[in-house]
Amino acid sequence: MSDTRREIDTLIEALARLPGLGPRSARRAVLYLLQRRGTLMLPLAQAMEAVAQTARDCLVCGNISTDDVCPICANEARATGELCVVEDVADLWAMERAGVFRGRYHVLGGTLSALDAVGPEELRIPQLIRRIADEGVREIILALNATVNGQTTAHYIADALSGSGVAVTTLAQGVPIGGELDYLDDGTISAALRSRRSF
Amino acid sequence: MSDTRREIDTLIEALARLPGLGPRSARRAVLYLLQRRGTLMLPLAQAMEAVAQTARDCLVCGNISTDDVCPICANEARATGELCVVEDVADLWAMERAGVFRGRYHVLGGTLSALDAVGPEELRIPQLIRRIADEGVREIILALNATVNGQTTAHYIADALSGSGVAVTTLAQGVPIGGELDYLDDGTISAALRSRRSF
């Protein structure tokens, strides 16, 4: 076994740990890269190293950027008094792709989970409470996933803020755009029916 | 749009070009890496850069390694007089994983294709002819894919070597180990029947 083979195998094992890739697809990806060493593999490696070395968590909201305070938190135009609470950075990106929300975010970094012993202290919930006073927040929009843990966390935050005078809202539940009733689960149909609105 | 966002987007686009990954899974993979910057992302980037900078094609067989002559070609014990001809490095790796073949390889780098204007000169076939004389090869084992182009290439090589005194063989076709007849295509069943052997 030569040194390259060992290096290549290390690379395959590292890639195989990414979500969506297994040992087989990681091997295929590495071969694809090896056949494009100069044009794709080296630039990709260097881009990845640059991001790995400069990226950091925003001290205010938990978003990932190159600054201690991310561009969204640094942008005064986004101090709208609305704070969107999300589970992780992926959800923040999804909200930003939709391009509708103009306020700021707060990334919890997960959900409360009795099973995994995740309590409020692990979740940047104390920082959220502090931000509400510091930034004059008027409305908290809970954009947490519609899972058991996500909803437990939403209830916990709503309870913690009751009496603070801050409005707590949550994303509407219902039929997704383009969704077909026949393919929707019973819970979604029930929620859409309960929250029906006049046409 | 900040600099990091641009760098992260470049990274997502580069990863999305890998086989088996699309824009969505590339984004998920990058987020996964961003959340493990020190433990996974930086080592992965550095491993990738090291391999990209040291890997090269073996001058003899076309395998990828860190040396001008790959470990298999450099290993005198593998000068068995048998040369296994494969389409690309992935096939060489697959053969090596099986761990049965003890000879050397010759990587064509593709198959003949009238449609894509790939002729013998593009395929390291002249190098193959030269190696047969230089290395005293007695048998050429054609381990080409069972596709139209693969089989065209096999026929071309067999023709080119007819009269050279070198035995030309090919991998057996038949029912794969663990294969169920009900799930096999007609061509495989026909081939397995034609090549039946006494039990």
Distance between the termini of chain A: 70 Å
* Strand residue content of chain A: 5-15%
Net shape of chain A = globular
Low-confidence segments of chain A, ≥5 residues, pLDDT <50? none
Q: How many whole angstroms does the radius of gyration of chain A measure?
A: 21 Å
Task: Give the beta-strand count of chain A.
Answer: 6
Mean pLDDT rating of chain A:
89
The protein's oligomeric status is homodimer
Give a quick rundown of the structure.
2 copies of one chain form a homodimer. In chain A, 46% of the residues lie in helices and 11% in strands.
Task: Please give a handful of descriptors for the protein shown.
homodimer, 199 residues, alpha/beta, two-stranded antiparallel ribbon, 6 strands
What would you say this structure looks like, in words?
The structure is a homodimer of 199-residue chains. With 199 residues, chain A is α/β, with parallel strands linked by helices. Helices cover 46% and strands 11% of the residues of chain A. In chain A, helix 1 packs across helix 2. Chains A and B meet through helix 1, helix 2, helix 3, strand 2 and helix 5 of A and helix 1, helix 2, helix 3, strand 2 and helix 5 of B. Chains A, B: May play a role in DNA repair. It seems to be involved in an RecBC-independent recombinational process of DNA repair. It may act with RecF and RecO. Chains A, B: This is Recombination protein RecR. Chains A, B: Keywords: DNA damage, DNA recombination, DNA repair, Metal-binding, Zinc, Zinc-finger. Chains A, B: It holds the Pfam family RecR_C.
